[in-house]
Amino acid sequence: MITLEGVTKIYHAGEVEVPALKGLSLHIPEGEFIAIMGPSGSGKSTLMNLIGCLDQATSGRYILDGYDVSDLTDDQLAWIRNRKIGFVFQSFNLIPRASAVHNVEMPLIYAGDNEQRRERAMAALEAVGILDRASHLPNELSGGQQQRVAVARALITDPAILLADEPTGNLDSESSLEIMKLLRDLNQQGRTIVLITHEADIAAFASRVVRLRDGVIVSDQRQSVTSEMVQ
User: Fold this and answer.
1) Structural domain span for residue 184
2) Which side of the chain, N or C, has fewer Cβ within a 10 Å radius?
């Protein structure tokens, strides 16, 4: 599903080279729920951008669902992002004056895919348990409901992976728990999920936790979900 081989990423601050990733290798099988953790400056945001095809590595290879994305053009990367990756961000990124169902439709609109667009959007909202709010505007929804809309939008193109970047960062504890249970349920249905977080209690929902420090992997461990999370 996801394979990174000897990936490096170097940024330039004037004439100074700043290495963000240092020969990182990582494999994420299909259907896995993985959490990526690390302190500020560890490289987790850079790794997220590479996995999400928002940036490209300085060197090394990245294989996503059979595609070698290491040397693709910007247009090719945009196609990969639209078709293979569903994004869920901390800030929801919903269009304020658009209804929930119209927000969910947006990836299909951008892709020019009009086939049963409204039906697919309604099905996505139903899948995340918020179909009854389809006609509501974002400001008429709670934070947890807005994030559910964002998850539905991420699922509308049936992506190979769901990339969740601090998805509970703007939520209260109860809403955070609801969103994490939703992601867990999606994973149990076979969805591959890559979660970026700095919170241990959020990472505890994942079956595997990878920790970064100074651009390298310092820990890669599998873990069991507690009985409290299953309820």
Assistant:
1) 29-56+73-230
2) C
From CA 82, how far away is CA 108, in angstroms rounded? 9
Amino acid identity of 167? P
Report the DSSP pairing between strands 208-213 and 216-222: antiparallel
pTM comes to 0.90
Report H helices in the chain. 44-51, 74-84, 100-111, 117-127, 143-155, 173-188, 200-203, 227-230
pLDDT tens for each residue of 104-130: 999 999 888 888 999 999 999 999 999
Single-letter residue type at 142: S
Contact 151, 119 (CB under 8 A): no
Is residue 10 situated within a structural domain?
no
Confirm whether 63 is domain-assigned: no
Pairwise CA distance, residues 167 & 169, whole Å: 6
Which CATH number is 102's domain given? Answer: 3.40.50.300
**What is the Cα–Cα distance from 37 to 201, expressed in whole angstroms?**
12
